């Protein structure tokens, strides 16, 4: 595997389900990011981790819970989501916070019924 | 307030018809300006980073330039495979942990 990988690529869940998104980067980077991308909106930063420590939580509802066990892996745990949470969820990594050239994974297309 | 505006929102070109995309920004202390390409259903693909006014970078048919207020992405003799959404983002000195993103320009190149 190379670059940034994300699984699953597509996810359909009900509002009462619990699911997790997984991201893995193979670039040796130290910073990892979760973004939400919705139509007609700019990319919305959700969380930032640097050396597996959370450095940014962009006022994200608690129904989204991130986890970063090491610098290569990032999870987004989902529970009791709302239909408006349906979007493309993108993971990215960068060498560090100062060097912000971010490399993205292919995303998870999430649909909440 | 830090802000990034991209224009036009959409652009349709004939193959071989050169044009430019614009990214204007108002930020306090520019640390870097980034261009990305995004194909439908995929994550953004990194293209360029520009750090200071006057800087230029090229890759195949793409050339990015930077002034103190805006950046241009020039596309020379585009091909249908250049069709994508082009995103611009800036890193500001006020908060270097996050990028400020524009809405993108959707480019379609007809054969």
The total count of helices of chain B amounts to: 0
- What does the overall shape of chain B look like? globular
State which percent range the strand residues of chain B make up: over 45%
Taking the alpha carbons of the first and last residues of chain B, their distance comes to 41 Å
Give me some keywords for this one.
heterodimer; A: mainly beta; seven-stranded mixed beta sheet; four-stranded antiparallel beta sheet; 11 strands; 0% helix; globular; B: mainly beta; six-stranded mixed beta sheet; five-stranded antiparallel beta sheet; 59% strand
Protein model, in words:
The complex is a heterodimer of chains A (113) and B (111). Chain A is mainly β. Chain A contains no helices and 11 strands. Chain A has strands at 4-7, 10-13, 18-25, 31-37, 44-50, 53-57, 64-70, 73-79, 87-94, 103-104, 108-112. In chain A, strands 2, 4, 5, 6, 9, 10 and 11 form a 7-stranded mixed beta sheet that branches. Chain A has a 4-stranded antiparallel beta sheet with strand order 1-3-8-7, with no helix packed on it. Chain A is globular and about 35 Å long. Chain B is an all-beta fold. Chain B has strands spanning 3-7, 10-14, 19-26, 30-38, 45-50, 56-59, 62-66, 70-75, 84-92, 99-101, 105-110. In chain B, strands 2, 4, 5, 9, 10 and 11 form a 6-stranded mixed beta sheet that branches. A 5-stranded antiparallel beta sheet of chain B has the order 1-3-8-7-6, with no helix packed on it. In chain B, β9 (84-92) and β10 form a beta hairpin. Chain B starts with a strand and ends with a strand. Chain A binds chain B through residues 4, 6, 40-43, 45, 48, 55-56, 58, 88, 90, 92, 97-98, 100-107, 109, and chain B through 4, 31-32, 34, 36, 41-46, 49, 87, 89, 91, 96-103.
